[in-house]
Amino acid sequence: MNGLLFLIPIALLLGFAGLAAFLWALQSGQFEDPDGSALRILIDDTGPADE
Amino acid sequence: MTVHSELSVPGIRCAGCIAKIERELAPMPGVRRARVNFTTRRVLVDHDEDLTPEALRKAIEAIGFEAQPLARAGEIERRESRDLLRAVAVAGFASMNIMLLSVSVWSGAGGVTRELFHWLSALIAMPTIAYSGRPFFKSAWSALRRRTNMDVPISIGVILATALSLFETITGGPHAYFDGAVMLLFFLLVGRWLDSVMRDRARSGAEALLRETAPGGMVILPDGAARWLAADAIEPGMRLLVAAGERLAADGVVEEGSSSLDRSLITGESRPEPVAKGGKVLAGTLNLDAPITVRVTAAGEGTTIADIARMMEAAGQGRSRYVRIADRAARLYAPAVHTLAASSFAGWMIAGAGWHESLLIAVAVLIITCPCALGLAVPAAQVVAAGALMRRGILVKDGSALERLSEADVVRFDKTGTLTLGRPVPEDAGRLEGEEAEVALALARASRHPIARALAQALEERGVRAAAVEDLKEVPGIGVAGRWRGQAALLGRPSWIGVEAAQSMLVTAFALGNNPPRVLSFADPVRPDAEAAVAEIRALGLDAAILSGDRPEAVRTVANALGMFATARLTPEDKLAEIERLHRQGHRVLMVGDGLNDGPALAAGHVSIAPASASDVGQTAADLVFLGDSLLPVPAAIRAARRTQNIVRQNFALAVGYNLFAVPLAICGLVTPLIAALAMSGSSLVVVANALRLRRCAR
Predict the structure, then answer these.
(1) Which of B263, B270, B326, B477 might form a disulfide with B524, Cβ 3.0–4.6 angstroms?
(2) SS percent in chain A: helix, strand, coil, step 5
(3) Using CA atoms, how far apart are residues B243 and B218, in angstroms rounded to an integer?
(4) Closest-CA residue of chain A to B86
(5) B631 and B594 in one domain?
(6) Do B37 and B99 sit in the same domain of this protein?
(7) In what order do the strands lie in the sheet with B2-8?
């Protein structure tokens, strides 16, 4: 029973942290352009101009 | 002051395009931040107030992409999806945590532990239901005043289950349904969100602003002076001076001069049509050759183009009355759910079970019958199908388009731009070689005439690089002249260059120095695979024919090549009338068209498809838009729609089957929260898994 007193708040807090992270990501527009994000890793920022 | 602008740039295709646009826009003076959204094919720019969207459009065009500034209308709808996603996230978090606590209760936690867990569940569930349940409560409330929809039993079920569980928690009872209520919300919200995402995606893809036909024109005042007037200030009786390359702002009769007009916006006809004194001209047509003076007969709301817009609006109203399959199911299902729950409450009361136990059983019946799987059955299948079609280059505007497409039994095609490519293509550009091709490209690029553009495109596709031609000069309506390494270069009318050519064909001539002049002829070719596509459509059991506004001779060649019946020289009204006649006969018509003249027919058709090369009007009126030159996406879309409809029906059968199994248990009072949770998630998973079979439906 004592263990529960610690574990339940911890479990809820972790879940809540996940929810907060998701809502933050949503708010900051990270889900606006999923197809573009997949392509952007191909863009070479430091290299010479690529066409 | 920073302003935010959005531009639609349909030409973005790869990572290189993203990098190019962002890199070249960012250093532009006045631009604070430029970012490409690849999913919606848009460029989002934060910029200073004095930089106009028009300047941004020009800048993007200079980079090499066609762009169109967008109004801010799309913002509200996208916010709806985002709100739904937030509700999904909250419900998901809550249902997982409550489930964690519930599992302990189910596996035998008792006494103080059970009470503590119930209280914790209540603490998580109540705010969640208040927040995530809003979309359903709102819709149920407005439905109560008209006729019941599926949201009414959902809302009643969720609220009753929560209230009863709270009562159980306070009195220390054994069963709480918090997990069931929250999980129900979670699955239903996922369905809602999928539906909303699909609508957004198509909206941003096909969202096209009606390009104004002409913002205004040069009016000759009675005293002989000319002044530019906006289109809505032009009145019948005024005299309009239309320069070559300008669009007409009003309908009228030619008073002076002769020229040829590109009427493709209105009639869909590709060939420039000659007009002389006394000839009728329409707003929206493009004056190609020489300046003409026009006496205005109709302006603003009275023009043919405004008539077409009104017809489209009227024709589109029939489609908004279409009842989607999910709503049809809900109309049957919702009363059944209410009756079942009420009669099990009454039955147990009569049997003497006491109000508390009777209510508990009635709530269990409501939760079990509440259509978790029904809510997912349709959107899950349609979203997967729309995704598969999108990868194939077919854009679906909303889920009901797939439902309607699966019902179509008759196809009517427009000719120009739909069965044909809708643009002149040089038949023998191959005769230009080496430096001749390079010089011809330089000359063709200097003109906006459709023939010159077609030649430029064909040469560019062959990989020809333009030569450095000097002294480029365009003689409007005649041709382009220039000098290259001391030699005169000419591209234009055959008579101007001094060669003979058959008049009935679309031709242009090219001469470089003392080389013999070359005559190039152009044609509007049938789309590649058109024959195969028509054959496939016939194999699917649809009757195909052509409705065209073009000349009978031009229609005949295409009709013979494809083996279809055809009707020629139809006005937009005629096309609309033909579609309505077919509807009265009980047919469901699939209209495939592109031009403004097809607009009313596209809007009136049971379902409609337009190529991406269509006019803005065509794209806006159509339910599906396909990219590329091939016509094969049309039969592919029909097949995919039929498969989707099959999966939707299977999903309904699965969902109802689950209920047939679980409802008797609930009525008998045997359903515990554990069984309710298992039935709900089980049926939802099965339905989603079944929908995933559509991933390859567009092949």
Answers:
(1) B270
(2) 65, 0, 35
(3) 9
(4) A23
(5) yes
(6) no
(7) B31-37, B42-48, B2-8, B68-69
Nearest Cβ partner for A19 among B16, B90, B120: B90
Give yes or no for residue A30 having a pLDDT over 70.
yes
Query: Which residue carries 């002769």 as its tokens?
Result: B258
Same domain, B575 and B636: yes
What integer pLDDT is reported at residue B308 of this predicted model? 74
SS3 of B162-193? HHHHHHHHHHCCCCCCHHHHHHHHHHHHHHHH
CB B625 within 8 A of CB B446: no
Same domain assignment for residues B417 and B449:
no
Mutation for testing the B interface, residue in A33, A40, A45, A46 having most B CBs under 10 Å? A33
Domain limit, last residue, from B32, B49, B72: B72
Locus of tokens 């009639």? B267
The question of whether B409 is a catalytic residue gets the answer no
Percent of chain B with pLDDT over 90: 15
B336-395: pLDDT as tens digits: 888 888 899 899 999 888 888 888 888 888 877 766 677 788 888 988 898 888 888 888
Tell me whether strands B470-475 and B479-484 are parallel, antiparallel or unpaired. antiparallel
* Higher pLDDT pick, B134 / B64: B134
Residue B586 belongs to domain spanning: 393-422+527-642
- Å from A3 to nearest chain B CA? 12
Same domain, B116 and B187: yes
DSSP B619-638: HHH-SEEE-SS-STHHHHHH
B604 backbone dihedrals φ, ψ, rounded to 5°: -85, -30
Q: How far apart are CA A27 and CA A33, in angstroms?
A: 13
Average pLDDT taken over every residue of chain B = 82
Distance CA B346, CA B343 (A): 5
**How much of chain B is helix, strand and coil, in % rounded to 5?**
55, 20, 30
Q: How far apart are CA B207 and CA B614, in angstroms?
A: 13
| Domain edges within chain A | 2-40
**How does DSSP classify residue B250?**
S
- State the CATH number of the domain containing residue B15: 3.30.70.100
Instruction: Give me the percent of chain B exceeding a pLDDT of 70.
Output: 90
- Cross-strand partners of B48: B2
Question: What is the distance in angstroms between the Cα of A46 and the nearest Cα belonging to chain B?
Answer: 12
Q: What distance in Å separates the CA atoms of residue B515 and residue B484, rounded to the nearest whole number?
A: 13
Residue type, B256: E
Mean pLDDT of B117-137: 92
- Interface confidence, given as ipTM, is 0.81
Tens digit of pLDDT for each residue in B265-274? 666 566 677 8
Single-letter code of the amino acid located at A34: P
CB pairs under 8 A between A and B: 55
Is residue B34 assigned to a domain? yes
List the single range of B112-121, B191-200, B264-273 with lowest mean pLDDT: B264-273
- Same domain (yes/no): B451, B595: no
Phi, psi of B611, rounded to the nearest 5 degrees: -75, 155
Counted domains in chain B: 5
Output the pLDDT for position B662: 83
Going B184 to B186 to B191 to B193, the CA torsion angle's sign is positive
Q: Is the pLDDT of residue B209 over 60?
A: no
Closest CB to B39 among A1, A23, A34: A34
Catalytic site residue from B414, B524, B550, B598: B414
Which amino acid belongs to residue B28?
M
Q: What is the pLDDT of residue B697?
A: 81
Choose the weakest-confidence range: A12-21, A41-50, B209-218.
B209-218
Chain B's closest residue to A17, CA to CA, is: B93
